[in-house]
Automatic annotation (TrEMBL):
Coiled coil feature spans: none
Keyword Repeat: yes
UniProt-recorded name of the protein: Uncharacterized protein
Swiss-Prot/TrEMBL keywords: Cytoplasm, Repeat
Amino acid sequence: MGLGVILNLTREQDDAQLARSVSGILEHMFKHTEETSAQLITNGALDTLLYWCRGTDPTVLRHCAVALANCAMYGGHRCQRLMIEKQAAEWLFPLAFSKEDELIRFYACLAVAVLAANREIEKEVVKSGTLELVEPFIASLDPEEFARNLLDSADSMQGRTAADLQHLLPLLDGTRLEGKCIAAFYLCVETSIKSRQRNTK
């Protein structure tokens, strides 16, 4: 399925069944390249994800949260700036408060922490209020239990690759405590996943 087909499908915002499928596809497409992410945003995919953030379907909300985290992590500074212009940090707030699903909250917090690590947009992210939710939420989690939850979700059965985890380094090296906190937690979770799988590479 090509990029053009996916972009056409994002225009069908009110089709609930389609939203489940397309949000899942976008979740993965935002991991491809910075250029793919920029094309997706320019052609309305981010607008559609933010529209779906208003809904209540936990599957769609999880896909949206992961897609936004992937866009922030893999899209580079240009896409992060576009996310702020489209008020993604504000839309991450209700996701970070989600009572439906810890994974929705986690990925929303990860997305906002990654955005805040970009000094050019840090002030706008702080203004959204979403960043304040990161530390208390992460402090409430147990890495072992969270690793089990991730393993139970189909997309994370293998854990993250070393290349994926490299994207956490700017958070660890950054000045924001929220970023350091969520990156360190994520690395603990991944260590737990890898040890369960006896994969220490």
